[in-house]
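Notes from hallway chat w/ T.B., transcribed later so I don't forget. T.B. wanted the structure written out for a chain they're using in a teaching module, and asked if we could keep both sequence and structure tokens in one place. Agreed to drop them here.
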Amino acid sequence: MIEGAAEAVACQVKLISGALSDWMGRRKPLALLGYGMAALTKPLFPLADGAATILLARIVDRIGKGIRGAPRDALIADLTLPEQRGAAYGLRQCLDTVGAFLGPALAITLLLLWPDNLRAVMWVAVIPAVIAVAILAFGVTEPESGIRSAKRPHPLAGFRASSFPREFWLLMGLIGLFTLARFSEAFLLLRAQDTGLALAWVPATLVLMNVVYTLSAYPAGRWADRVPRVPILMLGCAVLLAADVLLAVGDTLPLIALGVALWGLHMGLTEGLFAALVAEHAPVEMRATAFGVINLVRGLLLLPASGVAGWLWTIQGPAATFSAGAVFALLALIGLLRFNARRQRVDPIR
């Protein structure tokens, strides 16, 4: 519930920050604010004395993520040609994930050096957060985007569903199904621990997932710039379905590890491509707002998805949680088949 609440808050903030970015015609100030907020929350984790402090820290951290997400993704689209966006977003996912597996790898090392001293490990996490903010503040120069809609009295003035084409809203529905199928990654950690993995090695679960994610994201993006993107998304959905089945029925660490690896592969095959499709189907002057809308939907669905997953785990065990994920993955695959058929009718070369 803590993870679901934190991510839900972040995704809702993305709508506001995306609209504000389009209204301002600027990306870097909001990105800097978001990364700065995340850095400021890092000391709260080792200082926490209960779940309430952890919840507060996670929500503030995710608010920062929400503020920076849509402007950053819109900036990537502003700087790349349409035929390069699959690779660009794949590279973003790849680099974003490098830290996500180096962090748990460092956590494993430190937990082995300082057995069960989680607070000391969390203090170390403050250092890279501060360095990242400094690099963004002093090392990144934002180019003139030429996109500005400040004629509106406020960022959300005149916002209408009709501002976006029908394919955008169909895409939003598909992303919603993916969100229901892919609840919090915290359940991967729980699944590994449930199978008997020692506490010090539980972070290896995220290391494995993110290594596979990192290695697959950029090649998948480049591949999607050469062939139609939706069939690659369908492949990613099928991989998620296979991962859920393994995580539901697996009773040994090798099977769980394979399921976790497939989970990472499906993310590499889908996350960057969804971003490229959002940029493709959104009006240029509302590009950041479009990323905000998509992430709002993901946020609204992530909380109930993670909550239900946790409830199923408590009542029936991990098999029920991942079986439910498999059902939604199958529904998403069916939706992608219909979405692809529609695209082919509208534009056969896609």
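Follow-up for T.B.: The domain at 2-141+162-346 is CATH 1.20.1250.20 (Growth Hormone; Chain: A;). Might be a good example for the class.
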